[in-house]
Amino acid sequence: MAPPLSRWDDIVALILNSSSQAGYKLLYDSPKARQEVDHHWQASGGPHIVCILDVYENMHHGKRCLLMIMECMEGGELFSRIQERGDQAFTEREAAEIMRDIGTAIQFLHSHNIAHRDVKPENLLYTSKEKDAVLKLTDFGFAKETTQNALQTPCYTPYYVAPEVLGPEKYDKSCDMWSLGVIMYILLCGFPPFYSNTGQAISPGMKRRIRLGQYGFPNPEWSEVSEDAKQLIRLLLKTDPTERLTITQFMNHPWINVSPSSSHSRQGVQQEQGYGAGGWWLCLEALIQGWNGPMHTVSNPWVRDSFQQSMVVPQTPLHTARVLQEDKDHWDEVKEEMTSALATMRVDYDQVKIKDLKTSNNRLLNKRRKKQAGSSSATQGCNNQ
After folding, report:
1. Which residues are catalytic?
2. Is Cell cycle among this UniProt entry's keywords (predicted)?
3. Does 318 share its domain with 239?
4. Are residues 167 and 130 in the same domain?
C-alpha cells in the first residue's frame, strides 16, 4: 500500500510543532523514487527498521520531488560506533547481538516478500549515542518485491555483493543473506573477506574471489573467534544461493538465537526439567559430540532446543575495534570508492532504453553505414557495366 502524500505546507507546521528532531531524504519524483517510498513505507514500523513519519510532494528547483520525513538516527553508523570505542573491548557476544538485530530487520522484510539488496554497514544506523540505542536498517533505494519475477537487476555494493549478482544468473532474497555473512565477517575481525588489490572498488580479481568463494580466517584476528561463528559465516557465504541459509535458518542458528543474558546453566536446565546431575545432559552431550553438521539441521527439536538453551556466545575480546581504528582512513576511502562505483554498477533493466538502430546517431554505426553504402554503390556500378 502506497503512503499518503501530504501537502507541502503541512511540513512547516510539523517542524514548528515537533518537540523532537527528524531526518529527511529528498527524492526527485520518478517511478523508481515512488517504489523506494512504497517499499520503505511497507517496512516502516517493523523491528529494527527506520520509521517514516510522513511523505510530502512538491516542486524543488523546478522539478517535482518527494520528501520523506523519518525518525532522526543520531547515533551514527554501525562501524563508526565501534571505531569510537577506543580501548574498550568489542566482544564476540556483542557481535552476535548486533547480527541478531540486523537479522530481525531482514526477517521482517523477507516475510513481506521484499529484498533490500543493499544491506551494508553504512545503511545500519543507531537511534542515539546512548548505550541502549537501537540499531536500524535504512535506505530502500534498491529494494524490490520478490513475489512477481525473480530479481534480475545487477544492483549491489562491491564488498557486500552476492556471487550470483556478478553474473547473468537470477537472484533473490538470498543475496541479502550473503551480505549478512560479509557484515558478520567484518564485525568479527575489522576487515572484509573479499578485497581489491588494484585500488578499484571492485576488480576482476575480487570478482573472481567472490564468485569462487575464496576467503579465509587469518590469524591473529581470527585465532580466538569461536568455531560456531566461523561455521555460520561459511553457511552464509555459500556461492550457491540454494545452499545458503534462509533468514529463518539464520535466526534459528544457536550463535544467533540464544539470548546471552537468559541462557541457562547446565544445573539450572537440569533442575527445571527434573533430571539429576547425571541425567539427560550427558546423553545430550554425546549426541552433540557425534553431530558434525550445523545445529539448525538437527531434526529432533528437543535436542536442538535443549542445546540452544545451553549455549552461551563467548565474550571473547575481538581485534575489530583496533583494526577499524588503525585503518580508519583506509575504511573511509573504501566507502568512497564503493559509492563512486555504484553509478556504473547499478543498472535497472526495466529503466534501460533500447535505441532503434534505424534512428540511432551513433558515430561508429554511422561510419559502418557509410562503408556499407559505399560497398553497395561499387557493386551496383560493376553490375551496370
Report:
1. 118
2. no
3. yes
4. yes
